Amino acid sequence: MGSKQKTAIVTGASQGIGAGVVQAFLDRGYNVVANSRNIIGSGAFAESSQLALVDGSIGETAVAAKVVETAISRFGSIEALVNNAGIFFTKAFTDYTPEDFKALSNTNLEGFLYITQAAVKQMLAQKSGGSVINITTALAVNPISGITASVPMITKGGLEAVIRSLASEYAKEHIRFNAVAPGPVDTPLHKDNPKEFLKTLTPMGVVSDVNDIVDAILYLTEARHVTGEVLHVDGGAHSGKW
Q: 102's torsion region: left (phi>0), alpha (psi -120 to 50) or beta?
């Protein structure tokens, strides 16, 4: 193993898309640092010579610093970061509370900011490029009537906007910034939503599985000349009304 292997950081890694990404990176021979609020106690993964687990809310600066420090001390480098941690819930716009907004901002925006700043600093020191991927949603560009998610879209839209700015800012250093925007995905987030309803949210009438999203993340991680892109894996939902 050792530090010659590439190292990836994955947040929100204890279930769903995050857990799928962790396993896919491990299968490809990456070292991985996996984070979630309680990833150790969740039993999703066991630590190994190739996998380090870090508990804590990624919206806290100390946790973000610990994740990066763990990657460097255990594996010696950081080549990839997948900002998968996120929260999402729907309400009428006028019903969102200050507490709701703080929670969304803390996990979705601060959870991106601190870990990405620290990872990019390490990538710059390595002088060998790198990949950062945000997980957003098709709803950020194509709202669906009846899905009242206006305030969460402040955060998800911001995560799409920032990758375009950062792709330009760090292009010469070959640090690439991209996003994957899923439609409905068969994960614990949707365990209480009927499948037939979820199928109506895409023109193809499909619900993605975790592997569909993982494949997109792996592609962007290793696509050397792709940066500033939002890859929609949504059965065409971003294309407009259907």
A: alpha
- What's the CA gap between 137 and 118, in Å, rounded? 24
Beta bridge pairs of residue 32: 8, 51
Architecture of domain 7-239: 3-Layer(aba) Sandwich (3.40)
In this structure, is the dihedral angle defined by the CA atoms of residues 167, 233, 27 and 38, taken in order, positive or negative? positive
Domain boundaries, the chain: 7-239
Dump pLDDT digits (tens) for 61-84.
999 999 999 999 999 999 999 999
Enumerate the β-bridge partners of residue 230: 179
CA atoms in the 13 A half-sphere facing the CB of 185: 26
- Decide: pTM greater than 0.70: yes
DSSP symbols for 78-96? --EEEE---------GGG-
The edge-to-edge listing of strands for the beta sheet with 31-36 is 51-55, 31-36, 7-11, 80-83, 130-135, 175-182, 230-233
- C-alpha to C-alpha distance for 46 and 216, rounded to whole angstroms: 25
Can you give the three-state secondary structure of 141-178, one letter per residue?
CCCCCCCCCHHHHHHHHHHHHHHHHHHHHCHHHCEEEE
Query: How many Å apart are CA 183 and CA 236, to the nearest integer?
Result: 9
